[in-house]
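look at this fold:
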Amino acid sequence: MASRTLHPHERRYSQLDKEAASIMFGIKKFHNYLTGRQFCIITDHKPLLGIFDPKKPMPNMISPRLTRIAIALTSHNYEIKYKPGPEIGNADHLSRWPQPVQSEPQTHIGEVLLMAEAPEDFPFDAEDIARETNRDKILSKVIYYIQRGWPAKETDADLRPFWLHRTELSLQENCILLGCRVVVPHTLRRATLQILHKTHTGIVQTKALARSYVWWPGLNDDIELLVGGCVRCLENRHMPPKTTHEWITPSRPWSRIHIDFAGPYHNKYFLIIVDAYSRWPEVFMVNNTTTATVIRLLRTTFATHGLCEVLVSDNGTSFVSGDMKHFLQANKIRQVTTAPYHPATNGLAERMVQTVKDKLKKMNDLSWDIKIPNLWLGLRVTPCTGTNKTPAELLMNRQLRTLLDTIHPDNLKHKRTEIQIDNNKQIAGRETTVGQNVMFRNYSNQGPKWLPGKVLQKSGPSNYKIETEDGVAVNRHIDQLIKYKPRLEKGEEGITDITSEANKDSISTDSSGTNYQHGQQENSSQESERIIEIPDAEKWAEILGIPPSSESTLPVPGKIRTKLNVHSRTPYQRPQDHIDNLYLS
């Protein structure tokens, strides 16, 4: 514990300052025990809570003494609480039994002249300039020319600047003057620059000050070099002028996308994706901002619109993590990150974030399941001011239908429907007739793949009702029906009879001329055990349509040849009697 009496000057403090001084005394007294530890300050003066609370900003209108104490307290980790005086009896007891302290003399503040703080701040005068001017080789020549006259032409690079101002130079007390400005020797120029830049003014103001007092060749360049390399000026310099570089508009949709997070808004975060070409927005409500969530939503978006070429984002942890870089590299996507604390680089996404927040604030009476879809549709069907087209039109090359489309008397849909009906009527597809025996497709797990049935009714352009052998009516498409013929009895023979019987029961073919008879004959031959007798050799010429005068060799009875033998098996011999007829006379 510790206590002391107030100094004479402290007794003139206000009550607020006295209470603050007591806190500062205790902290200084027990500094070795409080440094680096968290402690609690208990006071019976409640106004101090609003001034010294570490969780609140420092008030602007307080006394300088309280400001100094508040700044000193920021180096400690503390919290301050209020308790009435009767509840902190130990401190109240010590305040009534203080330890005497020696009085300190009050320090008087002297007068301060706001010029040079010490003699070394301005170490030379006119005599020093005159002395250094006589020692300088170049300025000695300048003095000589001023007294004796300048030559008509000067080729020396060191004397050339003085020759150009020869009519303005003069000599006074061994000091060279350019008008009313002193020409500073080379040895004193650096000290002069330090004096000109003592208040750390900018380049323009330093030049203006120098033009009123001093001159030497290359003065402007030396000032620019000095101010440009001043560490204090650079550390406290303002932001440079903003540039107006714009992103190049892509040549096709979904080539470059911009992403960013919006929120928290009502404890919700939103991942926003914007296409740079069409301004098409994608807004996803998420519960966290992890990399896994971003990758999952990007996969969903890429599955709809395809992979992009460039992805622009800020330097958020979820956007620059190792998993995110691996995902983008695996999909051949180039990532462009913005500069830290420069959101204007990703301005397209930042602007969409602002738009989404503004619209969500105006839809507070709706649930999230209604807000987000309405927000999507509204942003996607509204024309952009830069393109005068909607994002849907630029991305999908079509307009999205909204409720506003229903008020337009557009008959285009009905006209298209009528045209499609006429086109369907002109196309002749496969069909069958009522009462026809067919085989229909069986989709039950029991029985064969095809079952016999009978056509009861044509229920549509390509749909038929089929009666099964059990008397049950089923609905089938024409593609689910095949031709069915009753099995021929034994004794019926001849290819012409089979062909004629097949033509009677065949299902008509389509307009392209595709004939299903051959396929149906194969199916029928597989289902039936019909016996076909081979005709005699004498009947083949009549069956195949070969004229009687043909000298072709007939096939051996009982065998069928697909190619006629029109060549003789004997080697060819040239006729000797008609050898003269082979040449022209």
Q: What stands out?
A: Residues 245 and 345 are 9 Å apart (CA to CA). The first helix runs from residue 15 to 29. The two ends are 154 Å apart (CA to CA).
